[in-house]
Amino acid sequence: MANTHQKLAHAIGEYLAWLEARAYRNTKARMRYERALTAFLVFVKEKGIAWEDTFTLDTLKGFRTWCKLPNPSHALRGLSSYLFREGRLSQPLLMPNYQIDLPDIYEDYLRYHEQSKQIPYRQIKQIRRVLTSLHEYLEKAKIPLSRLSIEQVDSFLATFCQPFAPDTCKTYRSYLRSFLTYLYQERSILSRDLAPLVRGNRLYAQAKPPKFLRPHEVQRLFAGLRLSSATDIRTYAMVHLAYSLGVRPIEISKISLDDIAFGKGQLTLPDTKSTNPLVLPLPEHTIKAITAYLVGARPDSKSRRLFVSFQSPYRPISGETVGRSITRAMKQTGLCSSAYWLRHTYAQNLLESGGSIFEIKEMLGHDKIESTKNYLHIHISLMRKVLFDETL
Q1: What would the pLDDT profile of 340-390 be if each residue is shown by its tens digit?
Q2: Does 104-197 carry CATH code 1.10.150.130?
Q3: End-to-end Cα, the chain, rounded Å
Q4: pTM summary value
Q5: pLDDT by residue (tens digit) across 255-290?
Q6: Is the dihedral of CA 217, 223, 227, 233 positive or negative?
Q7: Domain covering 2-96, topology
Q8: DSSP result, 152-179
C-alpha cells in the first residue's frame, strides 16, 4: 500500500501545480482543494486502499463520511478528471447522482458496447444516462424489460427528450435503438426488434447555413494575432493550420512531428474523423508559422506530438485546448466566432476558387458527399453552379 500512497501523493502534487499554473494561485478555492486532497491522502493510507480502488464510488462515500471538511468531493472529482485526461485513469470519478447501479442486463450491454465498438468513455456516460432513465421509467410503471412495447418506448422518449434540442434527441434515440437491437439479437429478451420503430418527428425547418469569415474579417484576424508569448506563437500556428487546411481542432491536436514534410510542403493526417488518411499541401505561410513555434516556443518534450503543454512534463494537448485557444484568439480580435468557423471559411474559399464538390469533399476529408453539401450552403449561387453547371 506504500506504493499507492506515494503514487497518490505524486498525483496530488502534480494536480495542485496544474491548478496553480491556471490562475488558482493564492485563491481560497485552491487552498480548499489542497486541504481536501491532503485529507484524502491520509484517508487512503489509513484505510489501506489499493490504487485500483482509490477512485471509486465506494471510496468516495467512505471519504465523505470520514472527512469533516465541507464538500470534499469537488477536489476529488477534479483530481480524477485530471488523471483521466492525462491517461492515468480509465475513467474519472462520477458523483453519486451521475451513476447508479443498474441491473446486470444494462451493465452487460454497456460493457459489450464499449468493448465491441471501442466507444469512448464520454459517450458511454451519455448512453448510461439514457439507460438509467429508461430503467427508472420501467420500474415506476412496473413494466418488465421483456414485455417492453413500442408504445411504451414512445411514451418514455416523449418525456425524456422533452427538455433537449432536436439534434440531442436524435442522438439519444440512436442510443436507445442500439440497446433494443442488443436485447433482441444478442440476448433474445425481446420477441421483436423494436429499434426500426423508434423514430423522431420529421423536421421541416431548413438547416442553418455554416458560419464563416468574410475576407475583411480574415484580414482582421491575422492582423490582430499576438506573438508576445509562447502561448501566442503556438496559437498563431494553430490558426494558420485551421484556416489554410480546414483541419478540425481534434485533428490539429493529433498532428505529430513525423506527419510534417517541410521539404515537400505536405502534411499527412493519418487519423481523421472519417478514418481516411489525408495528405494536404502546406502553404508557405503555414510552414513559417509552424517553424516559428518549433524554434521559439515549443518546450523540449519527449512527445512526438506537434503541440504540447507548457507545464512539465510537457504532454500533448487536447482538441478542446486547441479549440479554446483559437476561439480566444478570434474573440481578442473582436470577432464573435469560434474555431470551427475557420473550417467553413476554408470550404468557402475552395468553393469560390472554382473547386468542384468532389474536390472539396476530398480536401475536407469527408466520407459522404452529403456531408460536404452542408458546407456549400455558404454560397447558394456558387453551389448551384458547381452541382448543376448552371450559369447564374
Answers
A1: 788 877 777 776 666 555 555 555 655 555 555 555 554 555 555 555 554
A2: yes
A3: 76
A4: 0.48
A5: 999 999 999 999 988 766 555 677 888 999 999 999
A6: positive
A7: DNA polymerase; domain 1 (1.10.150)
A8: HHHHHHHHHTTTS-HHHHHHHHHHHHHH
